[in-house]
Design a protein that fits this description.
By secondary structure, the chain is α+β, with helices and mostly antiparallel strands. The chain is built from 17 helices and 27 strands. The longest helix is centred in the middle third of the chain and has 56 residues.
């Protein structure tokens, strides 16, 4: 019998297209890897959290070191971005072309354990590829958006933009015509975050706080999860539903006294996310504007920070030299001030010994020219930052907020997603105030720089006269402007004051009266904004933006509900929980790929695959497969599943489930990822694929006690040999679905013993 099986296996092997393409040694441990949607690029994360990108021919494209512990990875639906989740709750978005980091988003407070980036699929073949068409009118009136300033190698500081790659960021921020997509992320504390196009946060739920209403023993019961940790999340292609796997304790809200009898376990939840589909056009328009505004806010922040650093360096040098004069005045027993001494010199009254010593010995011509050059250089850089970065960014923000203001007035469409007209009006007024503040800063800067230049020319002429040197090469100075400098700039710094958030100014009475009169004509309702500094006005804009954008975030979050709960198996210890939480897979597939159905939506079938810990429900080395969980709440429930028993000589350390609709070469790509030579040689893996021609393809690796890897096999099984056993949605709280499979119908447990192996 064994010889016949081997002969059949050899014949089958000759007829199958599977073959090993590459066997490449890797000098480091790989802890996770993910193929791009086209299956020709492989992103891998090493144990020391380096990210590598390889082609299918094993050509390395780039390697980056984010400097953080990477805990999850996924690709954008178009394959242009690699998303990384970190241990400290950050999502890093990297450009596939060069590895540059496009965005850094703080979505969670703890480790992100899973990522899923889902795209709205076309509803039918006549759906014009499901593209959203929304014209961004900003490009009609403005040049390309400015980028974060980088002058003379000086960094602007920490921003949320990561590497400042102008072309990549602008292309990434432009989402005028593309399929609507959402990035989902789950963390170990049970929180799930949603971001449109991966950059605009639009919702967050804590699964521990979501009420779960289910049918239990013929009546409705309410549960909630305690100490839940997300394991997998998967958003359906039509964006209607999210299936997630999480571990935690199930608490009966209606009967708290008996909740302690319920052990922790792995649970499957179906969340209703139809708000994403029903309002995708509105969400697309809002996220288009809001994400660009958030990017430009970072440009404004970086610009102000850059200007403060540039000007501070020049003023430190100026103050260091000119602060010597008051000490010399005191040393000579005089009671005058620096301003008095310079005034006396300007009007030819006298030149005191202290001032003479300061100009000739302490300051000198060389030091004066160095200070003048430093101030002039800082001034030029300030003008560049204002004209090329700060002012364009503020003006584009103003225009985009005006667009959002128009959308907010369309209440029937945009009020349902939380776009509040009153809040947007408030933000629009504050950005108008910031535009005025930028103009004031620009004018003050120009005046200050001119007064500094005039003052330095006059001081240089005085030094040369005292040294009996010719002054014909020194530019003429205006004595009136010297007086203004001595009164308002010698001991004060208006540029620094405008860049200081804590500084307040006194507004002239006539100016304040004019501002109050302008309110009647549509001016700013806040007539005290000129008392604030540029930095203070920017901070207030940020606060109002945060409040306005939190409304869609809160509104969308409140419309995500739990539709169904399916306890899978109990977990008796934290050790079992930590060792099995990653051995799960959730996938959605169209029920009929060639369907001509043109209704409002198509039917999707979800497949949930998971390894059951040894000893749980008295099972050993078993894989559970369940389908149609998210459709079980419909009028025709079809929840079903089966168990797959793995031989004891094989070990499952990873699993996934695919419906393969690619040509044979794509099988080779997929298998390339999971052969033991790609990962650590000690890993023994099992991967499940659902093939289009009703076959299950299983990749097995033998257990091995030595350092040498065991043999690997591909097992092809006909799905008609497996009966998906119907499962009941009405369950007592202490009965798990897999126990129902194993106890009610013994035929639902299938064994891999005696199957023909194909090496």
């Amino acid at each position: 019998m064994a010889e016949e099986q081997m002969e059949e296996a050899s014949t089958a092997a000759a007829a199958t297209p599977f073959q090993l393409q590459f066997d490449k040694p890797i000098p480091f441990q790989i802890k996770m890897a993910e193929w791009n949607p086209e299956k020709d690029l492989l992103a891998m994360v090493t144990d020391d959290s380096k990210v590598l990108l390889h082609r299918f021919n094993w050509q390395r494209l780039w390697t980056v070191s984010p400097g953080k512990c990477i805990t999850s990875i996924c690709w954008s639906p178009d394959g242009k971005i690699v998303a990384l989740g970190t241990e400290d709750g950050l999502i890093l978005l990297h450009d596939v072309e060069n590895g540059k980091m496009l965005r850094r988003i703080k979505s969670h407070d703890v480790a992100i354990v899973c990522l899923n980036w889902a795209e709205d699929e076309p509803q039918s073949k006549t759906d014009k590829d499901g593209l959203l068409s929304y014209e961004d009118r900003t490009t009609r009136f403005f040049p390309p958006a400015p980028v974060v300033p980088r002058i003379g190698g000086l960094s602007s500081g920490d921003t949320c933009l990561g590497d400042e790659n102008e072309e990549s960021i602008q292309e990434f921020s432009s989402a005028s015509c593309q399929r609507f997509n959402i990035l989902c992320s789950g963390d170990k504390d049970g929180c799930i975050c949603f971001s449109i196009f991966g950059i605009f946060p639009v919702g967050k739920i804590n699964i521990n706080e979501v009420p779960i209403h289910v049918q239990s023993s013929g009546s409705k019961a309410s549960y909630r999860l305690q100490d839940a940790s997300i394991s997998k999340v998967s958003l359906s292609g039509n964006l209607h539903k999210l299936v997630l796997l999480c571990s935690g304790k199930l608490i009966d809200i209606d009967n708290i006294s008996h909740s302690n009898d319920i052990s922790g376990g792995l649970h499957c939840l179906h969340l209703d996310t139809s708000i994403f589909f029903n309002r995708k056009n509105e969400l697309h328009q809002v996220s288009q504007q809001a994400s660009s505004i958030q990017y430009l806010v970072e440009v404004v922040r970086a610009s102000i920070s850059m200007m403060a650093k540039q000007w501070s360096g020049a003023m430190n040098l100026f103050n260091e030299k000119f602060s010597v004069l008051p000490s010399l005045i005191t040393a000579h027993g005089m009671e005058s001030s620096s301003e008095d001494e310079f005034m006396s010199l300007l009007f030819g009254t006298r030149t005191s010994p202290a001032l003479h010593q300061f100009l000739v010995s302490s300051l000198g011509e060389a030091a004066l020219k160095r200070i003048a050059k430093s101030v002039d250089s800082a001034g030029r850089e300030l003008r560049v930052v204002v004209s090329e970065h700060l002012q364009p960014a503020v003006e584009i923000i103003s225009f985009r907020l005006a667009e959002l203001r128009g959308l907010a007035r369309w209440r029937s469409r945009f009020q349902n997603i939380g776009l509040d007209e009153k809040l947007i009006d408030g933000v629009t007024e504050r950005i108008g105030m910031l535009v005025v503040q930028v103009e004031r800063f620009s004018r003050v800067t120009a005046t200050v720089l001119y007064l500094f230049q005039n003052f330095f020319s006059w001081v240089l002429k005085c030094v040369k006269i005292l040294l009996s040197e010719p002054t014909d090469q020194v530019p003429a100075a205006n004595s009136e402007f010297v007086v203004l400098f001595l009164k308002f700039l010698l001991d004060k710094d208006p540029i620094k004051q405008l860049l200081d958030a804590d500084q307040r100014f006194e507004c002239h009475l006539d100016t304040a009266k004019h501002l109050e009169q302008l309110v009647v004509l549509g001016g700013f309702t806040d007539t005290h904004f000129l008392e604030r500094s540029l930095m203070k006005q920017f901070n207030e804009l940020e606060e109002s933006l945060k409040e306005a954008f939190s409304m869609p975030f809160t509104t969308i979050s409140s419309q995500i509900h739990c539709q169904a709960l399916l306890p899978l198996y109990p977990i008796t210890s934290l050790v079992d929980l930590s060792s099995t939480c990653n051995l799960t897979s959730v996938s959605f597939y169209k029920q009929d790929e060639d369907s001509q159905h043109s209704g409002p939506s198509y039917r999707l079938t979800d497949y949930i695959c998971f390894k059951i810990p040894d000893g749980s429900l008295n099972l050993r080395n078993c894989i559970g497969v369940i389908k149609d969980f998210s459709n079980s709440s419909t009028s025709t429930p079809s929840l079903s599943g089966f168990l797959l028993r793995i031989p004891d000589e094989y070990e499952c350390v990873d699993l996934s489930l695919y419906k393969v609709v690619f040509p044979a070469v794509s099988f080779e790509v997929i298998l390339h990822l999971f052969v033991p030579t790609v990962f650590d040689a000690s890993h023994k893996e099992l991967v499940i694929y659902i093939k289009q021609d009703s076959q299950i393809v299983v990749l097995l690796s033998e257990r091995s006690c030595s350092d040498n890897p065991g043999r690997s096999y591909i097992v092809m099984l006909q799905t008609e040999n497996f009966s998906f056993v119907p499962l009941s949605k009405i369950f007592p709280s202490n009965i798990y679905s897999i126990q129902e499979l194993a106890v009610r119908i013994s035929a639902s447990v299938f064994y891999l013993f005696g199957i023909h192996f194909i090496s």
